[in-house]
Amino acid sequence: MVDSIEYRPTFCRICEPLCGMIATVENGRLTALRPDREHPLSTGFACQKGIAFTEVQNDPDRVTVPLRKTGDGGFEEVSWEEAMTDIAARLSGIVRREGSGAVGWYFGNPGAFSYSHLMWAGIFIKGLGRHTHFFTAASQDVSNRMVASQLLYGVPTALPIPDVLRTELLVVIGANPVVSHGSVLTLPRIKDRISDVVKRGGRVVVIDPRKTETASAFEWLGIRPDGDAYLLLSVLQVLFDEGLVACDAIRRQADGLEWLKHRCASFTPEATSARTGVEPEVVRALARDLARASSAAVYGRFGTSTGQSGTLTTYLIDAVNIVTGNLDSAGGTLFGDLGIPGQRWSMKLTGAYLRRAYRTKRSRVGGFPRVIGAEPATLMAKEITTPGRRQIRALFVSAGNPVLSVPNGDELESAAEELELMVGLDLYVTETTAHCDYILPVTTMYERDDFPVTFQTQQTTPFRQATEAVVDPVGDVRQEWEIIDDLMQRMVPRPPVFTVLSGVRKLLGWCGVEFTPRTLIDGIIRMSSGGDRFGMRRGGLTFRRLTADYPHGKVLEQFLPSGIAKTVVVYRGGRVHLQHESIATEIQKLSKRTAPEGFPLLMIGRREPRSENSWMHNSELLTRGERGHQALMNIRDAAALDIFDGDRIGVTSPYGTIEIAVSTTEDIMAGVIAIPHGWGHRGTGGWQVANRAGGANVNRLTSSSPEDIEAISGMAWLTGVPVRVELL
């Protein structure tokens, strides 16, 4: 019997479009989610994952009370007081004995969708001590985008995005936004918005080894895996050789053009054709089209980031946009801007600090630079098992499942057994948290308030939306920031930063102000574009006003501004720096790249509409039917090995072997095999549907050796991995 029913506007935080949702709440329980027709950007669209999230919210397998590992490897329920007292005592002892360098934290992708989690995890890691290890999913996804921005613009958070709403020519490389819904690009209804490019007389070209769902909808240009850097260098070579460079725009924006021209000179389309599989005249036509279009934008993502030269490829994408005069230009690539007073000087200071940290702070294993304070997650297992100063003895994992997401997850499982303390903050007993001493239950996105601060500068349409919690937390779960805050207060002795934070809280409390993450995020909203500037701007936005007066969100401007690069680029004069020795070194490596004998195919990843990395495979709605984990092979490659649809195959790389079912298709280049990531559930976790779904952990085919990690950004090598296939 339903005593009360409410329909509450909110938004989804599974992926970056942040689609508007209407939550049906019956007697305080979330019972349904549907797209919000009144949302000004998503206008009634939501993907199947967003709609199915009620199954995560109400999952009987969800952890809702603290769990402690028992002697037989299982778990028992304990109180928060028992759990936090023991965790704090053990952590304090490790820090007193070994120093802060004995502590590590892995922060997974969903953490970026919670401002409070993001803020308090950062405070904890930095506050515990300067030697603490911090790992994030970014080193399997986006670290090189940040390093490329740091090199070009002086600060890693200057992230140019394609002006899809106005461009005449959109070139998409290594991305599948029809399925991913965009990455480092917040654009609801992205398929419709990309289709609008064609409707207004423009073109969309998708460059990918597979005819993806996006490529099927537009123009497909096939390319060999990990060949993007060669292709982009050839495009630049043609632009320089044929005098198609936008010289006036570059003189206003950038330094180092002649240096770049010299580096590209030998990469003619003929010279790179064998590496890319793209005919020379096709490359020349693409370069001419980019130069002659009234506006054009080149956009690349996961596929261009996870090869052997991800930072170089990302740099070259921006270089093409710069050389064609399309950076900071309407219809080209634009910078988002929060519009906070003094923002440029803040970014200059931040950029200077992060550039210095990048140069001076290195990982203990492999000597890799820290990217926004984070080390390569690929090396996490080795940081646990390698003896010496700063060897990790305590590891926290929040909102992540690195056993399935980092290369060589078996190595990490083995290393976890050597830890003195391992704590997971999660919704489930996963393949990773199954190894934890404690699993601390956390809220879902609908059990907390939120404001998507991470994605504010990646929106093609400047927009603000905040949400209150839709329902109360179930069971005894807590928000991540509350758990972290409790732990900080229990540390003995308490690190100075934690003591200062406690003092600030008391001082503000005397003034009647509660110091929480919401206090800080409200300040950001108030000071940014559209904010009330703490009462100085009548009718301006605050967190409360957004949730009360604009529950469906508020559009600030129709388009992103252009001509603002000088306020975003922090180098002297606001000028882009093209010349970097590290980029020259990466270009030199391209001519020396070789493939090992006996591995004739190249493995790439594959996004799936009903998956989000590893954490939504416990939904019956998303795993129904005959859906399973399958590899895709070119039909001719398969025929040569007497392989047919549905057969099981063994896939072997120089680093490991997996078994998987196969499907054959003509919509993938010969010599390529595509395998989705995030699978490999095998009963070590507590999620029953995911365990039945099973699958293979594709990262068993990838390497955790420092020699195979990208030197500039510490990125994992996940695409273009050499493999061979055999029928089982």
Would you mind describing this structure in some detail?
By secondary structure, the protein is an alpha/beta fold. It folds into 4 domains: 5-51, N-terminal domain of TfIIb (Single Sheet); 67-141 and 342-448 and 470-509, Rossmann fold, CATH 3.40.50; 160-334, Dimethylsulfoxide Reductase, domain 2, CATH 3.40.228.10; 594-727, Barwin-like endoglucanases. Helices cover 34% and strands 16% of the residues. The strands form 7 sheets. Strands 5-4-17-16-15-6-7 form a 7-stranded mixed beta sheet, covered by helices on one side. Strands 21-25-22-24-23-26 form a 6-stranded mixed β-barrel. A 4-stranded parallel beta sheet has the order 11-10-9-13, with helices on both faces. A hairpin with a 5-residue loop joins strand 4 (67-69) and strand 5. The longest helix has 19 residues, at 80-98. It is globular and about 70 Å long.
Characterize the largest beta sheet: strand count, sense, and whether it forms a barrel: 7 strands, mixed
Helicity, as a percent range: 25-40%
The whole-number mean of residue pLDDT values reads 96
- Name the strands of the widest sheet in spatial order: 5-4-17-16-15-6-7
Number of strands: 26
Number of helices: 28
Euclidean distance between termini CA atoms: 54 Å
Question: What amount of the residues lies in strands?
Answer: 15-25%
Task: Quickly give the CATH architecture of the largest domain.
Answer: 3-Layer(aba) Sandwich
* Count of domain modules: 4
Main structural class = alpha/beta
Radius of gyration in whole Å, from Cα? Answer: 25 Å
